[in-house]
Amino acid sequence: MHLDLFTPDTPSNLLPREGEVYDHGLILTLTEADAYLSYFLQHLPWRSDEVKLYGRHIQTARQVVWYADQAYHYRYSGVARQALPWDDCLLQLKQRIEQHTGEQFNSCLANLYVDGMQGMGWHSDDDMSLHRKTTIASLSLGATRKFVFRHKRTQEKVALQLQHGQLMVMQGETQQHWQHALMKSSKILQPRINLTFRQFQF
């Protein structure tokens, strides 16, 4: 099943069962989205992510940086991470998204994909540091990319194109029943930044 981009006044749930995903559409003007993208590309201290796989440390092509209310520590994929204090521009954006969604977030994982050949494989954001019914607000900046959900039991898929300035919110039991992935494409030459605002339990 494929869902085209739309901007409803009241978003409806995009998932057919056992989860909640809401497309809030473009919440930034083109001028705002361009300014945020340019600033974050230049000023965030991007670094390759690390994962521990079969006892080996592997660096990913995707680059990340993690911000939070405090210098939190947590382990993911066998690697310890420490949060940075909020960048002022990112904090402003967090507060704007909180007002838009009515949710509160204490951290943001920023992801940089330099072109369409960098993506993210199938996974769920079900880390033990997140509440079972956690809410994750995902803001896209830059190149339009195909984002797909896949039900863990039925393998049913729901796809959407995430555009420059678009906000998507995952909540309820989405992470328990669905995986998601960012598809690769050799046709996409521009970078994309994805800001994922979360409420960690530390």
Describe this structure in words.
With 202 residues, the chain is of the alpha+beta class. Strand 2 and strand 3 form a beta hairpin.
Descriptive terms for the model:
single chain; about 200 residues; alpha+beta; 4-stranded antiparallel β-sheet; 13 strands; disordered N terminus
In DSSP terms (H or I, runs of 4 or more residues), the helix count works out at 3
**Fraction of helical residues:** 10-25%
Shape: globular
Largest sheet: 7 strands, antiparallel
Structural class: alpha+beta
Into which percentage range does the β-strand content fall? 35-45%
Question: How do the strands of the widest beta sheet line up side by side?
Answer: 1-11-8-13-6-3-2
Low-confidence stretches: 1-8
Radius of gyration: 16 Å
Number of strands: 13
Element-by-element helix/strand order: EHEEEEHEEEEEEHEE
Mean pLDDT: 87
Termini separation comes to 37 Å
Offer a concise description of the structure.
By secondary structure, this protein is of the alpha+beta class. The chain has helices at residues 30-43, 88-101, 174-177, and strands at 20-26, 47-53, 56-68, 73-76, 79-82, 107-113, 120-123, 136-142, 145-151, 157-162, 166-171, 178-182, 192-198. It is built from three helices and 13 strands.
